[in-house]
Amino acid sequence: MTIESAIPVDGPVTVALWRACGLTRPWNDPDADFALALDSPSSTVLVARGASGIDGSVMVGFDGHRGWVYYLAVAPDGRRAGLGRALMEAAETWLRARGAPKIQLMVREDNHQALGFYQALGLEPQKVVTLGRFLKDDS
Ligand SMILES: CC(C)(COP(=O)(O)OP(=O)(O)OC[C@H]1O[C@@H](n2cnc3c(N)ncnc32)[C@H](O)[C@@H]1OP(=O)(O)O)[C@@H](O)C(=O)NCCC(=O)NCCS
């Protein structure tokens, strides 16, 4: 098993993994999300390659202030064997190499399995509310 930055041809398999892990939402375009992360020098998608293909992924990016994690996914039949932890460690290594002082992420409040996982890794809830809206297309 190796964890490394994805390349463009990894997109379909990685997005299929995200779908299998329940990470996609109708208002997001996961193929575009994958391509955008690979296009920027300040973000990437790390994938875990095993004998049977891509077994896990994590998107990571540094906005110049904080490091952010998205699309952490471990294939359902590969869980509870340390791969999620290894992917988060790889994301931390990627962020440290770019000088990011902090790693943070958003979890849906009803995703109890992920909350249990992050708690086991020592991540703590932050006292903030996340606000946002999609940017309008000016063109
Ligand atoms: C969350 C997820 C990535 C965890 O991956 P994993 O490979 O099973 O996790 P690991 O085996 O590395 O577990 C690491 C630690 O978290 C704990 N953990 C894992 N899943 C857990 C769960 N459902 N509840 C509580 N703790 C959990 C493990 O016990 C382990 O702790 P330990 O090392 O002290 O024993 C995986 O369940 C997943 O892909 N879920 C669906 C997608 C998702 O919700 N992603 C997060 C979006 S924010």
Strand line-up in the sheet with most strands: 1-2-3-4-5
Order of helices and strands: EHHEEEHEH
CA distance, first residue to last residue:
44 Å
CATH architecture: 3-Layer(aba) Sandwich
Strand coverage percent:
15-25%
CATH homology superfamily name = Gcn5-related N-acetyltransferase (GNAT)
State the major sheet: 5 strands, mixed
CATH names the topology as: Aminopeptidase
Alpha carbon gyration radius: 15 Å
Mean pLDDT comes to 97
Helix content: 25-40%
Task: Give a summary of the structure in a few sentences.
Helix content is 31%, strand content 24%. The protein is built from 4 helices and 5 strands; from the N terminus they run βααβββαβα.
Topology readout:
Blueprint: E1 2-5, H1 11-20, H2 30-39, E2 43-50, E3 53-62, E4 67-74, H3 83-96, E5 103-105, H4 112-120
Parallel strand pairs: 4-5
Antiparallel strand pairs: 1-2, 2-3, 3-4
Helix pairs in contact: 1-2
Bound molecules: coenzyme A (COA).
List its salient traits.
single chain; 139 residues; alpha+beta; Aminopeptidase; five-stranded mixed beta sheet; 4 helices; binds coenzyme A
What would you note in describing this structure?
- It is a single chain.
- 31% of the residues lie in helices and 24% in strands.
- Helix 1 packs across helix 2 (30-39).
- The protein has a five-stranded mixed β-sheet with strand order 1-2-3-4-5, sandwiched between helices.
- The protein is built from four helices and five strands.
- 26% of the residues are buried.
- Helix 3 (83-96) links the parallel strand 4 and strand 5.
- The termini are far apart.
- The chain has 139 residues and is of the alpha+beta class.
- The structure holds coenzyme A.
- Coenzyme A is lined by residues 21, 23, 72-74, 79-85, 107, 111, 113-114, 116-117, 120.
